[in-house]
Amino acid sequence: MAAYGLYTHIQANKRRSIALLIGLFFLVYLLVYAGALIGEGLSPVDPFEVVPLPVLLRRALADALYAAPFATVGTALWIAIAYKFHQRMIDAVTGGREVTRKEAPRLYNLVENLCISRGITVPKLKLIEDESLNAFATGMNERQYSITVTSGLIDNLSDAEIESVLGHELTHIRNGDVRLLVIAVIIAGVISFFAELVYRLLLQGGFRWRGGRSSDDRKGAGIAIVIAMALIAVAWLLSIIIRFALSRRREYLADAGSVELTKNPDAMISALRKIEGRGELPVATSAVMEMCIDNPREGFSNIFDTHPSVDARVAALVEFAGGHDPGPIALPPPSPVPDEGADPTAALPAPQQETQGSDHPKPFLPDRPPIELGSTHGTEPGPWGPHRG
Questions:
Q1: Which residues are catalytic?
Q2: Cα–Cα distance for residue pair 88/80, rounded to 1 Å
Q3: Residue 148, beta-bridge partner list
Q4: What is the C-alpha to C-alpha distance for residues 166 and 160, in angstroms, rounded to an integer?
Q5: How far apart, in whole angstroms, are the C-alpha atoms of residue 319 and residue 315?
Q6: Which class for 224: exposed (0-12), middle (13-18), buried (19 or more C-beta within 10 A)?
Q7: Nearest to 106 by CA among 170, 171, 165, 174
Q8: Angle (deg, nearest 10), helices 5-42 and 53-94
C-alpha cells in the first residue's frame, strides 16, 4: 500500500524496518550453516571416506538445523545483556554523563516543554564534553530512554535550534527507532564477531586435513570451505547494509517529526547547517555514530553511509515543510578566555537572534504558525498520537 503523508510514511517505514530486522536475524542462521559446512569439510565422520560435495552440503544443513536452537538462545542472551548494559557501554565509550536540572537548566526547560506539549515522559539528559556538534538518543524502554548532546552543540546553537534537535531525538524515541537500531546493532555485532572469528581461525591459524584423505575428497571439502567463507562474507556485508538502510530512512522522518512538534522548519534547517561537517566524535564507535543526528563518516559510493546528506535533508524540509535554506553556516570562533581581574561579562557573546530567511534579526523564538507536512490517510497514529485533522 502506498504511503500518504507523514503518519502513514512512519507506519510503512516501521513495517519495512521489521522485515529488515527479521532478515538480519536470519543472517545468524546463515552463519550457523556456514560454520557447519566448515566443520564437515575439515572433519568428516570417517577420515578415510570419500565424501562428495552434495553430501557435505546435506550434512551441514542437518548440523545447522540441530544447532539453530542454540544459536537462537545465544543471540537472545546477547540481546538481553545489551538490553541491560548498552547505555553504560555507550557512556563508557563517549564519556557521557547524566546532568541534573541544576547543571543544565536551559536544556531541561527545552526538552520538558516539548514533552509536556505532547504528554510524553521526559527522557534522561546526558552531556559529552566535546567541541563537536552532535546528539543522539538511546534506550530500550521508557525507564532507559535518554538524549545525549555535546557541549559544542549547546554552545553554538540557539535555543530554537536546540529545541529542533531535541525534537528530532524525541521523534526517534517515539517512533521506536532507538530500540530497533540498538537491536540491529547487537545482531550485526554477533555476525561480525562470528565472521571475524572464523576468518582468524582459518587464515591466521591455518588448518590441516584429518586422516588419509584422497585428492577427490580434499577437492570436495575445499570447495565446501570456500562456499562457507563466501556465505560468511555475504552475511557480514548484508548485515552492514541492512543496519545502514535502517538508519538512513529514519532520519528524514525524524526531521519531519521535529518540525511537526516545534512548528519551526527554519530552526531545524539552520541546526542541520551548523552541525554539517562538525559532528565527528573521535572517541565514538561506528555503532554510536549511527545513532547521532549526523554522521560525517562516509562509505564507498554512499553504500555504507548511515545518514542521508545534509543537503538532501534540507531539501526535503524546504520542499515539504516550507523552510528556507540559508546555505552553509560558518560558526564564530571560540570566545577568548578573559584575563584575571577583567570584567567577566565583557567576553560573553551577544545573544543569538533568529533569522527567518531575511537580513533583519527577529525576536528570540518567533511566532511559529502550524506547518502542514502533507495529507494524512486513514487513522493510523503518528509519532505523537492519533492525528486529529
A1: 169
A2: 14
A3: 126, 136
A4: 10
A5: 6
A6: buried
A7: 165
A8: 130
Q: Where is 150: in which H helix or E strand?
A: strand 146-150
Q: Which amino acid is at 337?
A: V
Query: Phi and psi at residue 350, in whole multiples of 5°?
Result: -70, 145
Chain Cα centroid distance, residue 147: 13
Give the Cα separation of 260 and 267 in Å (integer).
12
143 pLDDT band (50/70/90 cuts)? confident
Q: How far apart are CA 60 and CA 55, in angstroms?
A: 9
pLDDT at 27 over 80: yes
d(CA 186, CA 181): 9
Region 101-122: what's the mean pLDDT? 91
Which ranges constitute the DSSP H helices of 95-213? 105-118, 151-156, 159-174, 177-199
Q: Which pLDDT band, with edges at 50, 70 and 90, does 376 fall under? A: very low
The alpha carbon of residue 379 and the mean position of all alpha carbons in its chain are separated, in whole angstroms, by 28
Q: Which amino acid is at 243?
A: R
Query: In this predicted structure, what is the pLDDT of residue 389?
Result: 43
**Distance in angstroms between the alpha carbons of the first and the last residue of the chain:** 22
The stretch 61-85 carries a mean pLDDT of 85
Strands 146-150 and 135-138: antiparallel
Q: Return left, alpha or beta for 3; rule: phi > 0 is left, psi -120 to 50 is alpha, else beta.
A: beta
Of 142-151, 231-240, 366-375, which has the strongest mean pLDDT? 142-151
Top-confidence residue, 287 or 378: 287
Return the amino acid letter for 374.
G
Name residue 172's amino acid: H
Q: Lowest-confidence range among 2-11, 234-243, 246-255?
A: 2-11
d(CA 150, CA 129): 6
SS3 label, residue 381? coil
Q: Give the HSE-up count for residue 268: Cα atoms under 13 Å, Cβ half-sphere.
A: 34
Lowest mean pLDDT among 8-22, 201-215, 229-243: 201-215
Distance CA 298, CA 307 (A): 9
